[in-house]
Amino acid sequence: MQDNRVPNKISTTPLTHGERYRSVLKDKKPRVYQKIQEYLADLNSPQRVCSIDIAYDWSCNMQCTHCFTTLLQDKTRRASKFTLESLKKVCDEADAMGVFAISLQGGEPLFWGDLEDIIRTIGPDRFTISIVTNGVFLDKPMAEKLKALGVDRMCLSIDSGNAREHDRFRNYPGSFQKCMEAVDHCLAIGLTPHIHTVVTHTSLYSDGFNYILKYSKERNLGITVLIAIPAGEWCGNTSDLITEEDAKYIQKLHEQYPLLRRDITAVNNVDTGCRAVSYALYITAEGEVLPCPFLHFTLGNAFVTPLKDILAKGHRVKEFHDYSPKCLAGEDKDFIKKYMSKTFGVKDLPLKVEDVFSLDPLE
């Protein structure tokens, strides 16, 4: 592919995410630190991806209003699922490609009976490991166990600072209180808690969101603001998407509180823009590799195809290879209309990427 641009670039703002988190890695996880340094020295490499989200298992104890995975799950029950053996294959290949971060998602990872074996198979010495959780099962003994296993960060999903709103959103009474207690447990034993919160055009300015901001500042917690996406249970719903003014407001909040970020916020001093393919990949429980959790187009199956070949295929899609200052799935209205709309109303997802996008020819 003719590469006419830099997909990732050094950020022009000092307000980048990751410095505090990265500073401890040099001694704690030197192998991970070295991979980050190698990435920073070679930002343009199409053979490199930095982070992989793995939905090892769809099993979950909740039925959330905004769940993005429902349409991805194999309804036939015939597709292969992750095993420890296939997980090792994927993680070995990821390590060889320079991946330095693995995020375990679901489903609910703390609901899985084999979580300890999963973490050991990933290899905490070769990746930073974060777990995205609703917090219900994250009591103090669980937090201590996860820290001892080498987990670096617990990403707790809090959708509103109003307990009733959060519990209604999660369809799980008492979940807000459990999540607040989970934060306390993590802080008490030195396991980093990080807040994930989903916002819409309207909830961004709500008392519930403002409470989360205040709470995060008071506890000195990192917070990732995830914008509404027309996928999963919100498939086709474009009325709740943020506007350009909303995006500017979130950026202003980041400037006031640098530990608040979005997925497109500069990280490790690098402005990645939209991270789909250029920085991160997402793997479903069936092994399908997607550009991101919300772009339901498969680049290939990691159980049968080498990860490096799947990444190379992703870079043949101009829309993923080229730098985008906006989140393709949640902000780029043209992209949503032209490509994501093809998933609206479709029961059998993900779609094959070659059936939707034009692929540049192989070199």
Task: Compile the SSE list and pairings.
Blueprint: E1 9-10, H1 19-23, H2 25-28, H3 30-40, E2 51-55, H4 84-96, E3 101-105, H5 115-122, E4 128-133, H6 140-149, E5 153-157, H7 163-170, H8 175-189, E6 192-199, H9 207-219, E7 222-227, H10 244-256, E8 260-261, E9 270-271, E10 280-283, E11 289-290, E12 297-298, H11 307-315, H12 318-321, H13 333-338, E13 351-352
Parallel strand pairs: 2-3, 2-10, 3-4, 4-5, 5-6, 6-7, 7-8, 12-13
Antiparallel strand pairs: 1-9, 10-11
Helix pairs in contact: 4-5, 6-8
Overview of this protein structure:
- The protein is built from 13 helices and 13 strands.
- The chain is an alpha/beta fold and 363 residues long.
- A nine-stranded mixed sheet has the order 8-7-6-5-4-3-2-10-11.
- Strand 6 (192-199), helix 9 (207-219) and strand 7 form a beta-alpha-beta unit.
- Helix 4 (84-96) runs parallel beside helix 5 (115-122) and helix 6 (140-149) packs across helix 8.
- The longest helix is centred in the middle third of the chain and has 15 residues, at 175-189.
- It is globular.
